[in-house]
Amino acid sequence: MTEARAGRRYLVRTFGCQMNEHDSGRAAGVLESLGYRPTTSPEDADLILLNTCAVRENADNKLYGTLGHLKATKQRRRSAGQDLTIVVGGCLAQKDGATVAERAPWVDVVYGTHNLPDLPKLLAQADSAAVPVVELIEQLETFPSALPAKREVRHHAWVSVSVGCNNSCTFCIVPALRGPERSRPPEEIVDEVERLVADGVIEVTLLGQNVNSYGRDLFGASRFAELLRALGGIGGLERGRFTSPHPRDFTEDVLLAMVETPNVMPHLHLPLQSGSDRLLRLMRRSYRQRRYLSLVERTRELLPDAALTTDIIVGFPGETEEDFQATLEVVDRVRFDQAFTFQYSPRPGTPAAELVTSFVPPEVVTDRYARLEPMVRSHSRQAHERLVGTEQELLIESPSKTDPSRWSGRTRGNHLVHLPAAEVGADGVPSYAPGDLVTVPVTEAATNYALAGPVLGVRHTEAGRATAAAMARGEGWRALTSVPGPTGVSLPVVSSSRH
Ligand code: SF4
User: Fold this and answer.
1) Buried b / exposed e across 340-357, counting CB within 10 Å, b at 16+?
2) What is the CATH number of domain 391-478?
3) pLDDT tens for the 499 residues of the chain, in order
4) What is the residue with the minimal CA distance to atom 2 of ligand 1?
């Protein structure tokens, strides 16, 4: 199997959320374990894997548009005596499964959210199949985290603590596609983080649809606070983050764990969705405005410097001006460091999509959105202004895409800060690199970022040094490193006779 794929190139394209980013890293790891090597160019790829999202608007149009382009590429390749393997995975594949195969029969493999471990088997089957190979199962058997992985950068990794969700927010398709919540045993998570740190990672983001209920299915009560505290015991882990908590399940012990664990970063992303109790009820979000605000108040008491970010939906079916005013009121009181605001649009398959008669007219949604946006932007600017005059330690992320004189990094509170580009020595090695920790004074604020400089100090890390060396060799700052799966977890064995 591995020999058959050796030297062939793959490209993974990710749509949607961090969970998909995490799964894409696993998909890439699985492909590399089969002998594939990465490429960034679709023209060079022998295999293109689309890791799809069913949450974003027009997700299916985008998928079929992309597949249309790939059909033409595949036909061109075939006339030149070559091939292109097209794989569709992730949430939209789980939702539409057989429909993808019917609408785009030139696709080779369609696999669902629980089928990633079977990818080698499915690719082997596709080699001799005349029609797309489709596999969708309802229950997770192997956690994607237990698979080999490939990271985009050397210093950061996504680590899933649970998959699925037991809630039933009426706008959300996740429970239908990812199934009920299942937590990974804590020792497995800690083991994964330790292995990642040994491999140069200094920042991990723990991922779950509702991290606050982590462990309930295993222990009958949430163990998320304990998990955060366990991160504190992992030497070399500079920054631990997590997403996303649910306001209903958020307990004080999580805040205390954040306070008492120095390497858990002071940043809380707490999805609000709406400030109206009536609307929260319609959304089946089982907390109310009062609960949300008291949680914010307690966070500010215990973690006064913590950054608070949120998600807000405008124009959910049935939203009245009064409901919207309640959202504005909460936004005005909390003054989020950043708010991700969305105009409601129905997602097929969700209960809210059926509430056609109470859809808010588009012009009303647009008007409300236009009133909310300046408020959240102004708060965001104020949050960056509060950084001006302070010294911040930034974890360097990347050179700027648009301005060669700037690089970007993140504060402990996850604020984006641009700083002067690293100086490059005669040997081509930059003075710091993605993965290094750099102290800078913050000098200026903008809405979505702050500016800083000059550099006051650099803490070089193993990841930063490896990236700097790769940059000096002309390989760029992105990592092309693979991480094997944990001991004892193997991929399904596929006999080469199946080709
Ligand atoms: S908590 Fe609600 S929004 Fe989040 S994944 Fe579960 S159902 Fe979706």
Assistant:
1) ebbbbeebeebebbebee
2) 2.40.50
3) 555 677 899 999 888 778 888 888 889 989 998 999 888 888 889 999 999 888 766 777 888 889 999 999 999 988 888 889 999 998 888 888 788 989 999 999 999 888 888 899 999 999 888 888 888 876 666 666 667 777 888 999 999 899 889 999 999 888 888 888 999 999 999 999 999 999 999 999 999 989 999 999 999 999 999 999 999 999 999 999 999 889 998 989 999 999 999 999 999 999 999 999 999 999 999 999 999 999 999 999 999 999 999 999 999 999 999 999 999 999 999 999 999 999 998 988 899 999 999 999 999 999 999 999 999 999 999 999 999 999 999 999 999 878 889 999 999 999 999 999 999 999 999 999 999 999 999 999 999 999 999 999 999 999 999 999 999 999 888 765 444 443 333 332 222 222 2
4) 169
Domain 2-141 listed as CATH 3.40.50.12160: yes
Structure tokens at 483: 């991480």
For domain 148-386, give the CATH superfamily.
tm_1862 like domain (3.80.30.20)
- Tokens describing residue 494: 């596929």
Q: Is the CB of 352 under 6 A from ligand 1?
A: no
Count CB-CB contacts under 10 A for residue 381.
15
Distance from the Cα of residue 191 to its chain's centroid? 21
Distance 173 CA to ligand 1 centre (A): 8
Q: What is the pTM of this model?
A: 0.85
Q: Is 246 in the pocket of ligand 1 (CB under 6 A)?
A: yes
Q: How many other CB atoms sit within 10 Å of the CB of residue 127?
A: 13
